[in-house]
């Protein structure tokens, strides 16, 4: 399900975090654990990845990550605002230095004109730093959208690490 | 990272749960999200998989799943007792009908004479039913141990579904 390049990037990111004793948490909706699975494929990752949350349902997003009902109502689960609150919730719940989160529509169902299949918001941030979140529309089928989301999440995490 | 057979099993399990309107939560240590990732590779899985928890650290096992400090101290994180409490915690936190959990040593580091690399405890249970947990020692490298754990977790879940 994951390309060798993705796993190589996971290894590079873990090395960079380990070198600075930074810990990480993940909060995933559309990737459903794929980001955590890629990171934990690398030996020694348990020292860095404190926790991962797969929050598919709105209830799980609220209960586990503290995403507000108001945000979900106003912006929807697939939104920049939700991605940002997922990052903040993961940082708070896991007590990690960094967190990365994604929420999107992997398809084949669930798309609409306003929010098509492939629309994904990815957020990344660190404790005491502003959280950045970007929207993407990835082409392809469910597997392609999920794989592209993992790669983009790693790119955002890399950017965050460059900035620390 | 996952074989086609594993994904086919995931699809079969999801169909069986959907047919009975049963929901699921996962709690993973050594597989680090791989069980959730396999299930969520299947379209429509979001209706069944309410939440997944990747609890690598003892702190995450306690905070997210309510595994007791006493259990971790007395039996260790890789133990039948911890696997059972992870199932109970996932059922409680996600409010799901079923939960599956695993905790083990994927290696290459972390093994000991008493608890070798490849030792994995997998638990499965349903709301209001006793949780069963089994110990395994899987051969091979980190990737092989993780893949074998996913397959065994699915076998336990299948057994649980046959019993409901």
The neighbouring-strand order within the major sheet of chain A is: 2-1-3-4-5
The CATH architecture assignment of chain A turns out to be: Alpha-Beta Complex
Straight-line N-to-C gap of chain A: 31 Å
CATH fold title of chain A: Maf protein
Summarize the biggest pleated sheet of chain A: 5 strands, mixed
Biggest interface reads: A-B, 42 and 43 residues
> What is the CATH C-level name of chain A?
Alpha Beta
Q: On the 0-100 scale, what is the average pLDDT of chain A?
A: 95
Supply database-style keywords:
homodimer; 164 residues; alpha/beta; Maf protein; five-stranded mixed sheet; 6 helices
Question: Overview of this structure, please?
Answer:
Two copies of one chain form a homodimer. Chain A is 46% helix and 20% strand. By secondary structure, chain A is of the alpha/beta class. Chain A has a single domain, classed as Maf protein (Alpha-Beta Complex), CATH 3.90.950. In chain A, strands 2-1-3-4-5 form a five-stranded mixed β-sheet, sandwiched between helices. The interface between A and B is large, with 42 and 43 residues. Strand 2 (49-55) of chain A pairs antiparallel with strand 2 (49-55) of chain B, so a sheet runs across the interface.
């Amino acid at each position: 399900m994951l390309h060798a390049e993705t796993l190589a990037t996971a290894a590079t990111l873990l090395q960079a975090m380990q070198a600075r004793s930074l810990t990480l948490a993940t909060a995933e909706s559309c990737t459903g654990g794929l980001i955590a699975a890629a990171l934990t494929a690398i030996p020694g990752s348990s020292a860095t990845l404190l926790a991962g949350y797969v929050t598919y349902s709105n209830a799980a997003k609220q209960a586990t990550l503290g995403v507000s009902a108001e945000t979900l109502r106003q912006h929807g689960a697939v939104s920049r605002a939700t991605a940002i609150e997922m990052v903040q919730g993961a940082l708070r719940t896991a007590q990690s230095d960094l967190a990365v989160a994604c929420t999107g529509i992997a398809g084949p169902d669930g798309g609409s004109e306003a929010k098509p299949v492939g629309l994904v918001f990815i957020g990344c941030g660190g404790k005491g730093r502003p959280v950045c979140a970007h929207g993407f529309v990835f082409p392809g089928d469910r597997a392609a959208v999920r794989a592209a989301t993992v790669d983009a999440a790693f790119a955002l995490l890399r950017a965050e690490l460059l900035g620390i």
